[in-house]
Amino acid sequence: MSWISLLIAGFFEVFWATTMKLSHGFSKLNFSILTIIGITLSFIFLAQATKHLNLSIAYPVWTGIGAVGSILIGVFIFKDQLSVTTIIFIILLVISIIGIKLTS
């Protein structure tokens, strides 16, 4: 159940980062409110996950999910461009997250 909480926390990490971008510097109220809700839920689920997972495992996985998810949103929704080198490092990040999960 802790890993599910951590995945949900990671989802809300991506959610709030996306809505923050859509808020245009907190100038759009609806997206600003969604950002605050997303941040709150992300932290709540992270806190739930850390009840049973070590912080040294939960935090890097949470930030990794947020990073990779935000990159994917950036590429597919906002049409961000990535260099080949950046893509290689993203792949290494995903491998690292999987490695942390497998070895914990």
TrEMBL record:
<protein>
    <submittedName>
        <fullName>Multidrug resistance protein, SMR family</fullName>
    </submittedName>
</protein>
<feature type="transmembrane region" description="Helical">
    <location>
        <begin position="84"/>
        <end position="103"/>
    </location>
</feature>
<keyword id="KW-0812">Transmembrane</keyword>
<keyword id="KW-0813">Transport</keyword>
<dbReference type="GO" id="GO:0005886">
    <property type="term" value="C:plasma membrane"/>
</dbReference>
<keyword id="KW-1003">Cell membrane</keyword>
<dbReference type="Pfam" id="PF00893">
    <property type="entry name" value="Multi_Drug_Res"/>
</dbReference>
<feature type="transmembrane region" description="Helical">
    <location>
        <begin position="59"/>
        <end position="78"/>
    </location>
</feature>
<dbReference type="InterPro" id="IPR045324">
    <property type="entry name" value="Small_multidrug_res"/>
</dbReference>
<keyword id="KW-0472">Membrane</keyword>
<dbReference type="InterPro" id="IPR037185">
    <property type="entry name" value="EmrE-like"/>
</dbReference>
<dbReference type="GO" id="GO:0022857">
    <property type="term" value="F:transmembrane transporter activity"/>
</dbReference>
<keyword id="KW-1133">Transmembrane helix</keyword>
<feature type="transmembrane region" description="Helical">
    <location>
        <begin position="27"/>
        <end position="47"/>
    </location>
</feature>
<comment type="similarity">
    <text>Belongs to the drug/metabolite transporter (DMT) superfamily. Small multidrug resistance (SMR) (TC 2.A.7.1) family.</text>
</comment>
<dbReference type="InterPro" id="IPR000390">
    <property type="entry name" value="Small_drug/metabolite_transptr"/>
</dbReference>
